[in-house]
Specification:
The complex is a heterodimer of chains A (484) and B (499). In chain A, 39% of the residues lie in helices and 18% in strands. With 484 residues, chain A is an alpha+beta fold. In chain A, strands 1, 2, 6, 7, 10, 11, 12, 13 and 14 form a 9-stranded mixed β-sheet that branches. In chain A, strands 5-4-15 form a 3-stranded antiparallel β-sheet, with no helix packed on it. In chain A, strands 3-16 form a two-stranded antiparallel ribbon. In chain A, α3 links the parallel β12 and β13. In chain A, α12 crosses α15 and α14 packs across α15. Chain A is elongated, with a radius of gyration of 30 Å. Chain B has a domain of 278 residues: Amidase signature (AS) enzymes. The two termini of chain B are 23 Å apart. Classes of the chains: A alpha+beta (484), B alpha/beta (499). Chains A and B meet through loops of A and α11 and α12 of B.
Chain lengths: 484, 499
């Protein structure tokens, strides 16, 4: 059932479009040689170009262009071989030149699509309208002095990709899925680290509501929301606000709003004062950007396998269910980890271990897959120890916990702790005899037809063998003796 | 030892020969120019900033290089630098109050090229504020006096033209052997014509714009002014060249322009654009133009009538495109990071006060025009339309150059006018650029050559226009005109001579 919000007049549909600003991973800024590292001392990564000194000129950083093209290819989008940079003019203290260089009329990337997956397992195609390159502004610090604002230009001129979606999303869940999927793709491509807390990925959310079957109504733009959770909350809050406005017989004004996450509501940014006329025009300091088709093809050939393709391959090659494959490809590092474990082993068992015991251990130890206490190779060796009957599944759990704690190789742990499973049929027979002798009443019940007691006997034998008995051999011995 | 006027009267090429022959030292040459500046600049106001100590130090270094045999092509030659070029450690004002305290921590590419070749910088030459003007009357540091006088009215103070008025006046008066200048709609060629010297605006992209205070980025182009066409060729050879720091700079080799000056015009086809026979063009300018064509014909060129039908839209188009770009380029002068700041009670107030106090009337007028033509709802009607017309202007020239190798026109519709004249109406002032603007819009090279005097004894220039990056043909034509015109007249005010 599709998502709606119930108003006094009945259900309302929510229409959502997203504009994502993704900071490009590059060593230097979009039009200057200054560095881009996050967290540097204020104003230490600023060139005369970034500070807009007289006579300074922008020179386009080709690596940023390559990153935008890679991203466009990753979004199955059309690459425009000719694009152009425009100036967006406005005055602000963190915008030294008085204009932002952006791509207004002719973006480098045209229409594309992102496939999102929802909790119920269904998928949807969300349209990407365009992607363009632009400069970031500097940062205004208003809390350093009671009377003055401080300006940090480290970020000024850093390359951003603005990725604009079609108004194709219909629920907060879809918007969240879109952002997560976009972030996954950007990380796979290595074009943006997708880190919303550090501000390297920010979202402007366009929200409107309508009755089923209606054309679009007026939208509002909620600016600069900095987490996926807040995006989802902001959509719901803004949609509810608009429904109240419409149902009161008033009209929603097209305006820019801010999301107050503490209060869970959106607030107007006083649209009149911000009614800029940006006076866009082509930047005369820069020539049109003309890409060589062969160069684009070269970038395409070097693209990594992307999540959708990888998921399909995992399902096909490893026989994984869609859910498992989807979870494993969410992050490139997880997918790589999984493949290292699965290669030459039971792929479903490998998936269970990665998604089960490993994820639980990472959660518990607050680690990521990249600094996992258990390497993919050693998890693989643990699976091997099970496959060659050195240990059984129960012991494997114990060994794994030791691996998480010490980082030791599983075989070493097995040796040190004497966990090697017992396959000596004599020892197993002896243990079985001992258990049967100790439980004459249960034996009588079993023989009297209570088949369910078989499990009890297995448990008792394993207990007697400190868990190390080979389960198959134990079963076999028990069956033989019980049939006795 | 040579007298001041003997040294300041030399052409740049002759001075270079003199230095090589050790007839005099670079220090003597520079000192003579500094003496001339000291005597005349208080009156002419051609320099905003004079840097005698720096100049003498550079001259001594040049003498050492000459002695060591390592001298560059411009070693020891004293130049004036238009105060639009950023010079490391030397104040750069753009003739604006808003940059009054600005000392750049970097050297423009063009001036760095000149320093690389051994040039001596005497100081920073006056100009119209941000290079916006045709008379040098808009400078925040006062107007420049043209060293030329009307024979029949010697008390009238004439303008040197603009915007490179300080550069042209300094060179004309012997206060520099040559100077850097910039041309956006005629700012090299018109002042050169008004001051009886030569000046070339090369093809857009020939000289780097890096480190030159921007006026209108798609039009601004640096070039030299000097007393002879050959001097211009030598200077341009040093100034020009590809610069990866300017995305609009073009990566082509710099040819031997000096050699091109001596090529002659035999076999060349020279076009006469019919639309330049403007209504109201003084008869003596028409006559000089015909004389110029006759000189070229005598030297073996063929004269061909051509049409540039969109010429009449040139000025109107220019006064949309240039202000539009300037309104954006000048947004950075906001009182926040450098230059003049007038404190305000909030950010907008600081902007308003700083910009109100820092910019002069003409600059404000152009910022307003430019802001208007880029505004929402007007962009298509003004800026976009202007760019389309600009493309047609370029096509006119491209078509003409399929028939001819160069064009000859007058440089300006009048000789130098007096301070105060043409001031009542900005449009009248803008008309000064009517012959120079089309080449700027098309980005093609244009050279002004001093060709004769009018009935008041004031210099007049002829303009040679050429194909993009064919400065060589332009110099070839200019060289022939210069030799035929034998323009050896000196202005009333000249270094080392009593005024």
């Amino acid at each position: 059932m599709s998502y709606t919000i119930e108003g006094d007049t009945g259900p309302w549909e929510v229409v959502i479009g997203l504009e994502v600003h993704a900071q490009v991973i590059s060593n230097a800024k979009l039009f200057s040689g200054a560095a881009t590292a996050f967290g540097a001392e204020p104003n230490t990564q600023v060139s005369f170009v970034d500070a807009a000194f007289p006579g300074m000129l922008p020179v386009l950083n080709r690596e940023c262009v390559a990153q935008a093209v890679r991203t466009g290819l990753g979004l199955n989008a059309h690459i425009n071989l000719v694009s152009r940079f425009d100036r967006k003019n406005y005055f602000y203290a963190d915008l030294p030149s008085g204009y932002q260089i952006s791509q207004y009329e002719h973006p480098i990337v045209g229409a594309g699509t992102i496939e999102i997956e929802l909790a119920d397992g269904s998928t949807r195609q969300i349209g990407v309208t365009r992607l363009h390159l632009e400069q970031d502004a500097g940062k205004s610090l208003h809390d350093q002095s009671p009377t003055q604002s401080y300006i940090d230009l480290n970020r000024a001129g850093v390359a951003l990709m603005e990725i604009v979606s079609e108004p194709d999303m219909r629920s907060p869940e879809e918007a969240g899925a879109y952002l997560r999927k976009l972030r996954t793709i950007l990380r796979y491509l290595g074009t943006c680290d997708g880190n919303m807390e550090e501000g390297s990925m920010r979202a402007d959310v366009n929200v409107s509501v309508r009755k089923h079957g209606e054309p679009f109504r007026t939208r509002c733009e909620v600016k600069n929301v900095n987490s996926i959770r807040f995006v989802m909350q902001a959509i719901e809050a803004e949609a509810k606000r608009q429904i109240i406005v419409w149902e009161a017989g008033e009209t929603v004004d097209q305006e820019t709003r801010l999301f107050d996450s503490a209060r869970g509501e959106t607030r107007s940014m006083r649209s009149k004062e911000n009614a800029h006329d940006y006076r866009y025009f082509p930047d005369p300091d820069l020539l049109p950007l003309v890409l060589d088709e062969a160069w684009v093809e070269g970038l395409k050939a070097e693209l990594p396998e992307l999540p959708d393709a990888k998921k399909a391959r995992f399902m096909q090659e490893y026989g994984l269910p869609a859910y498992d494959a989807g979870v494993l490809v969410m992050e490139q590092a997880t997918a790589d980890f999984y493949e290292t474990v699965a290669r030459g082993r039971d792929p479903k068992l490998a998936a269970n271990w990665v998604m089960g015991d490993l994820f639980a251990a990472l959660n518990r130890t607050s680690r990521t897959i990249a600094d996992s206490p258990v390497s993919a190779a050693s998890l693989g060796r643990l699976l091997d120890l099970m496959a060659d009957d050195t240990i059984n599944g129960r012991i494997a759990k114990e060994v794994f916990e030791a691996m998480v704690e010490t980082g030791e190789d599983p075989a070493a742990i097995v040796d040190r702790k004497g966990l090697r499973q017992v396959t000596d049929t004599g020892a197993i027979d002896a243990a079985v005899d001992q258990v049967l002798a100790a439980n004459p009443d249960k034996l009588a019940e079993f023989r009297g037809g209570k088949d369910k007691l078989f499990g009890f006997f297995v448990g008792q034998v394993m207990k007697a063998m400190a868990g190390k008995g080979n389960p198959a051999l134990v079963n076999e011995a028990l069956k033989r003796k019980l049939a006795g | 030892m040579a007298s001041v006027s003997e040294l300041t009267g030399l052409s740049l090429v002759a001075a270079r020969e003199g230095l090589r022959r050790r007839d005099f030292s670079a220090r003597e040459l520079t000192a003579a120019h500094l003496a001339g500046i000291e005597a005349l600049n208080p009156r002419l106001n051609a320099y905003i900033t004079v840097t005698p100590d720096l100049a003498l130090k550079q001259a001594e270094a040049a003498d050492a290089a000459i002695a060591a045999g390592t001298a560059g092509p411009l070693a020891g030659l004293p130049l004036a630098i238009k105060d639009l070029f950023c010079t490391e450690g030397v104040r750069t004002t753009a003739a604006s109050r808003i940059l009054e305290p600005f000392v750049p921590p970097y050297e423009s590419t063009v001036t760095a090229n000149l320093l690389r070749d051994g040039a001596v910088f005497l100081g920073k030459a006056n100009l119209d504020e941000f290079a916006m003007g045709s008379s040098n009357m808009t400078s925040a540091y006062g107007p420049v006096e043209n060293p030329w006088k009307r024979q029949d009215d010697p008390s009238a103070v004439l303008v040197p033209g603009g915007s490179s008025g300080g550069s042209a006046a300094a060179v004309a008066a012997g206060l520099a052997l040559g100077a850097t200048a910039t041309d956006t709609g005629g700012s090299i060629r018109q002042p050169a014509a008004f001051c009886g010297i030569a000046g070339i605006k090369p093809t857009y992209g020939r000289c780097s714009r890096w480190g030159i205070v921007a006026f209108a980025s798609s039009l601004d182009q640096a070039g030299p002014v000097a007393r002879t066409v050959e001097d211009c060729a030598v200077l341009l050879g040093s100034m020009a060249g590809f610069d990866p720091k300017d995305s609009t700079s073009v990566d082509r080799p710099v040819p031997d322009y000096l050699a091109a000056c001596r090529r002659g015009v035999r076999g060349l086809r020279i076009g006469v654009p019919r639309e330049y026979h403007a209504e109201g063009l003084p008869a003596e300018i028409e006559a000089l133009w015909r004389k110029g064509l006759a000189w070229l014909r005598q030297e073996g060129a063929e004269i061909v009538d051509v049409s540039l039908p969109h010429t009449k839209y040139g000025l109107a188009t220019y006064y949309i495109v240039a202000p539009a770009e300037c309104s954006s380029n000048l947004a950075r002068y906001d009182g926040v990071r450098f230059g003049l700041r007038e404190e305000g009670h909030d950010l907008n107030d600081l902007y308003e006060r700083s910009r109100a106090a820092g910019f002069g009337a003409e600059v404000k007028r152009r910022i307003l025009i430019g802001t208007y033509v880029l505004s929402h709802g007007y962009y298509d009607a003004y800026y976009l339309k202007a760019q389309k017309v600009r493309a047609l202007i370029l096509r006119d020239f491209t078509d003409a150059f399929t028939q001819v190798d160069a064009l000859l026109t007058p440089t300006a519709p009048s000789a130098a006018f007096a301070q105060g004249e043409n001031m009542d109406d900005p449009v009248k002032m803008y008309l000064n650029d009517v012959f120079t603007v089309p080449a700027s819009m098309a980005g093609i090279p244009g050279l002004s050559v001093p060709a004769g005097l009018d009935s008041h004894g004031l210099p007049l220039g002829l303009q040679v226009l050429g194909r993009p990056f064919d400065e060589e043909t332009v110099f070839a034509v200019g060289g022939v005109l210069e030799r035929a015109a034998r323009f050896t007249h000196k202005p009333a005010l000249y270094a080392g001579e009593t005024a």
